[in-house]
């Protein structure tokens, strides 16, 4: 069965919340497992390759506690054939230790439909004002 793009985006946002609550597994499950994949890290680095990107998603999620929140503001999204994208803002609050930290990001994500299911290929997020 071919997954609709809108249904995927709803799953993607739920997985993003789980990530901010310390569980990277849901994001990894929605991510490409083979082929090209990239991730721009918060410190300005670049990680390439599905295995390394997915390892980083699990590693980075583990630093967050269970009280994270996320709000997505879509500015544009779409699909054409087996490629899709989402562009907008994400406002988050994450728990690190006993402290809560809030941030707002400009986000671009690129997706590919693989064997009928949408998968995350690339995410870029930078702090917004």
Describe this structure in words.
With 129 residues, the chain is of the alpha+beta class. It has a single domain, classed as Nuclear Transport Factor 2, Chain: A. It has three helices and six strands. It has helices at residues 5-20, 25-29, 50-61; strands spanning 38-40, 46-48, 69-80, 83-96, 99-114, 117-127. A six-stranded mixed beta sheet has the order 2-1-6-5-4-3, with helices on one face. The longest helix is centred in the first third of the chain and has 16 residues, at 5-20.
Question: How is the topology of this model organized?
Answer:
Blueprint: H1 5-20, H2 25-29, E1 38-40, E2 46-48, H3 50-61, E3 69-80, E4 83-96, E5 99-114, E6 117-127
Provide the CATH architecture: Roll
Structural class: alpha+beta
Uncertain runs are none
Give the beta-strand count.
6
Main pleated sheet: 6 strands, mixed
- Computed over alpha carbons, the radius of gyration is 14 Å
Residue share in β-strands = over 45%
Looking at the structure, what is the overall shape?
Answer: globular
What's the mean pLDDT score? 93
What's the CATH C level? Alpha Beta
First-to-last CA distance: 41 Å
What's the total helix number? 3
Number of domains: 1
Helix-strand topology string: HHEEHEEEE
- How much helical structure, as a percent, in the residues? 25-40%
Strand order of the largest sheet: 2-1-6-5-4-3
The CATH topology label is Nuclear Transport Factor 2, Chain: A
């Amino acid at each position: 069965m071919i997954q609709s793009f809108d249904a995927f985006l709803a799953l993607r946002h739920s997985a993003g919340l789980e990530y901010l609550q310390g569980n990277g597994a849901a994001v990894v499950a929605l991510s490409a497992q083979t082929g090209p994949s990239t991730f721009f890290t918060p410190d300005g680095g670049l990680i390439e390759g599905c295995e390394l990107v997915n390892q980083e998603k699990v590693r980075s999620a583990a630093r967050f506690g269970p009280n994270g929140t996320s709000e997505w503001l879509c500015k544009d999204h779409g699909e054409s054939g087996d490629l899709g994208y989402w562009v907008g803002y994400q406002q988050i609050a994450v728990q690190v230790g006993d402290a809560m930290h809030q941030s707002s990001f400009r986000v671009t994500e690129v997706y590919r439909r693989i064997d009928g299911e949408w998968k995350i290929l690339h995410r870029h997020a930078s702090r917004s004002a």
